[in-house]
Amino acid sequence: MQISARADYAVRALVELAADSARPLTCEGIASAQDIPFRFLKSVFRDLRSAGLVRSQRGCEGGYWLGRDAATITVAEVMTAVDGEFFTVRGVRPEALGYPGAASGLPDLWRGVESAAQALLARTTIGDLAERGARAGAEDGGAGRARDASAAVTA
């Protein structure tokens, strides 16, 4: 299974917003903090705003905030907001697959993989990841925040 750059950047950006929710953050600041290409992140934020996951304000005091409490935004929801379909095999949903002969049981495997991934990502919230990052940052003086947020999904 491959996680798209859009999904990775979206989750990282939302975790950054959750970690510093007292003020709006600029796209430039988030891109710099997370080492994400600025132009790409702007595109990701359009999708996140459309999905209601972030809100924005223009002007010198503007920037982005989470659209809802971080504890209510799941990683699965973020991935779907930026990528569309959650899980496909060659662009086809697992329930629509059919293989001939000896491979006829394979769609069941793909549905199982989708179900397991969906379950993990649906119970992992942006708030969980921000909290894990804050704990890791406190333990190592801040250097591990982004690293831990990325690794937390596998935990």
From TrEMBL:
<dbReference type="InterPro" id="IPR036388">
    <property type="entry name" value="WH-like_DNA-bd_sf"/>
</dbReference>
<dbReference type="InterPro" id="IPR036390">
    <property type="entry name" value="WH_DNA-bd_sf"/>
</dbReference>
<dbReference type="InterPro" id="IPR030489">
    <property type="entry name" value="TR_Rrf2-type_CS"/>
</dbReference>
<keyword id="KW-0238">DNA-binding</keyword>
<dbReference type="GO" id="GO:0003677">
    <property type="term" value="F:DNA binding"/>
</dbReference>
<dbReference type="InterPro" id="IPR000944">
    <property type="entry name" value="Tscrpt_reg_Rrf2"/>
</dbReference>
<dbReference type="Pfam" id="PF02082">
    <property type="entry name" value="Rrf2"/>
</dbReference>
<feature type="region of interest" description="Disordered">
    <location>
        <begin position="136"/>
        <end position="155"/>
    </location>
</feature>
<dbReference type="GO" id="GO:0003700">
    <property type="term" value="F:DNA-binding transcription factor activity"/>
</dbReference>
<dbReference type="GO" id="GO:0005829">
    <property type="term" value="C:cytosol"/>
</dbReference>
<protein>
    <submittedName>
        <fullName>Rrf2 family transcriptional regulator</fullName>
    </submittedName>
</protein>
